[in-house]
């Protein structure tokens, strides 16, 4: 768990500094550079090493003759996967906290009904009151797929605000050191 | 309040498109650049304008053998011509877009008349189309209200012209605080568009997969790669698709959980 938080911290730090996350690897003949952003888009660059490229050798030949490429692919993909996993920590934690808050409020509102249910007194009206919840629970995943990503916007806004704040603090420091 | 309704609708639909589509690009680059991309959006745009100009010049060199000498006007103005606007403001990108458009039309016409060799000409026409399209996208962003503080401020406008290289050079050596007052005010989506355009630049995209939330998956494969497929490139592209989809799936699960919590709260007694 501790490892996951460290991973997340590293991923967010990179995201705030460079606006994305990146993993690179170097094999015998080529560089592999993978870049991702918060919306899940990925750019994957395959670049021949400068010296070899200057000799005019075809990149396809370079890739085919590279004996360490497969090993490097596994390393770079795993590293990138871990960083992306780290990025999901904030939304997951946010929902976890909201979930606890909602549960507390719900229990507070429905304390009497919950006590009645625990006492084993089931009635038709009680069952009917559960039906809307059942129906909405089925619809929610479907609606979530269509509209869910709008909920990401506040998270993006928070990250953007943190970045601006850091920039502001850094600028102030520069100004103080100059003044 | 309703004046900007159309703009708002456009913004919502493009944001929704971005958030409901994943794009995975596999690109083969000629060489690795040692320098990091600048953090400043203005400098990113300047990088991008430089890349586009360089590409137009090199393509002009490539085809000058076929029509450079016979048509001086084209040779001068379309591919290889000197940049009148050597900065990275609205007019600079208009110039780049116009050059790419004219060059594309010239290549197409020459191809139809059989004046040019067939190999690579389609890829070059596509590259010119990319330069034209992205330049137009950048112009659209630059002209939006509140994006460019120089455009909106008559005092700054009189002293700074980001269509000229000198203004960019002055901006580059400003203190961070001063530079911030001239910096573009971009939202996250606009910044991502510019960053991505700069990352891809004028490199060859060999594989591109676009996945829509509605279930549509489109994969584009460059002709050169289709003729000579490489297992490693296919495999790493698949890996990247897997990571991207997993990330998306996790976020959707988060949203669904959130929805379930809210519905649980609103459940009538």
Q: List low-pLDDT spans of chain A.
A: 130-134, 140-150
Strand content of chain B: 5-15%
Helix and strand pattern of chain B: HEHHHHHHHHHEEHH
Q: Which two chains touch over the largest interface?
A: A-B, 79 and 64 residues
Mean pLDDT across every amino acid position of chain A? 69
**Rg calc of chain A:** 25 Å
Poorly predicted runs of chain B are none
The coarse overall form of chain A would be elongated
As a percent range, the share of strand residues of chain A is 5-15%
Number of helices of chain A: 8
Helicity range of the residues of chain A? over 70%
Molecular structure report:
Chain A has 179 residues and is mostly helical. Chain A has helices at 2-18, 50-54, 59-64, 69-87, 89-109, 111-118, 124-147, 152-178; strands spanning 21-26, 30-36, 42-48. Chain A has a three-stranded antiparallel β-sheet with strand order 1-2-3. In chain A, helix 1 (2-18) crosses helix 4. Chain A is elongated and about 80 Å long. Chain A starts with a helix and ends with a helix. The mean pLDDT of chain B is 81. Chain B is mostly helical and 269 residues long. The chains are: A mainly alpha (179), B mainly alpha (269). At the A-B interface, strand 2, strand 3, helix 3, helix 4 and helix 5 of A face helix 1, strand 1, helix 9, helix 10 and helix 12 of B. Strand 3 (42-48) of chain A pairs parallel with strand 1 of chain B, so a sheet runs across the interface.
């Amino acid at each position: 768990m501790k490892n996951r938080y460290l991973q997340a911290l590293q991923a967010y730090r990179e995201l705030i500094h460079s606006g994305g996350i990146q993993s690179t690897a170097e094999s015998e003949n080529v560089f592999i550079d993978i870049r991702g952003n918060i919306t899940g888009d990925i750019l994957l660059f395959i670049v021949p090493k400068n010296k070899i490229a200057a000799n005019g050798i075809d990149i396809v030949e370079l890739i085919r003759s590279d004996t360490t490429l497969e090993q490097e692919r596994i390393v770079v993909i795993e590293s990138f996967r871990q960083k992306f996993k780290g990025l999901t920590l904030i939304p997951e934690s946010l929902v976890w906290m909201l979930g606890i808050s909602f549960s507390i409020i719900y229990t507070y509102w429905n304390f009497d009904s919950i006590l009645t249910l625990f006492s084993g007194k089931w009635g038709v009206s009680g069952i009917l009151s559960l039906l809307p919840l059942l129906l909405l629970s089925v619809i929610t995943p479907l609606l979530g797929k269509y509209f869910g990503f709008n909920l990401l916007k506040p998270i993006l806004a928070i990250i953007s605000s943190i970045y601006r704040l850091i920039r502001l603090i850094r600028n102030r420091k520069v100004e103080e050191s100059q003044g | 309040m309703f004046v900007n309704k159309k703009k708002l609708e456009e913004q919502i639909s493009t944001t929704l498109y971005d958030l409901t589509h994943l794009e995975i690009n596999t690109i083969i680059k000629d060489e690795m650049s040692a320098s990091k991309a600048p953090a400043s959006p203005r400098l990113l745009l300047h990088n991008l304008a430089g890349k586009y100009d360089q590409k137009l010049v090199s393509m002009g060199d490539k085809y000058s053998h076929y029509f450079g000498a016979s048509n001086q006007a084209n040779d001068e103005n379309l591919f290889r011509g000197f940049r009148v606007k050597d900065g990275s403001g609205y007019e600079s990108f208009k110039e780049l877009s116009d050059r790419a458009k004219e060059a594309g039309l010239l290549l197409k016409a020459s191809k139809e008349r059989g004046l040019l060799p067939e190999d690579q000409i389609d890829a070059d026409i596509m590259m010119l189309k990319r330069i034209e399209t992205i330049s137009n996208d950048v112009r659209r962003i630059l002209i939006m209200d509140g994006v460019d503080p120089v455009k909106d401020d008559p005092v700054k406008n009189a002293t700074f012209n980001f269509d000229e290289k000198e203004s960019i050079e002055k901006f580059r050596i400003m203190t961070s605080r001063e530079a911030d007052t001239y910096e573009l005010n971009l939202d996250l989506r606009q910044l991502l568009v510019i960053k991505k355009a700069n990352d891809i630049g004028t490199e060859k995209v060999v594989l591109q997969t676009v996945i829509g939330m509605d279930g549509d998956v489109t994969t584009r494969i460059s002709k050169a790669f289709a003729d000579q497929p490489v297992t490693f490139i296919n495999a790493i592209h698949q890996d990247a698709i897997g990571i991207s989809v997993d990330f998306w799936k996790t976020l959707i699960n988060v949203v669904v959980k959130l929805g379930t919590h809210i519905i649980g709260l609103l459940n009538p007694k």
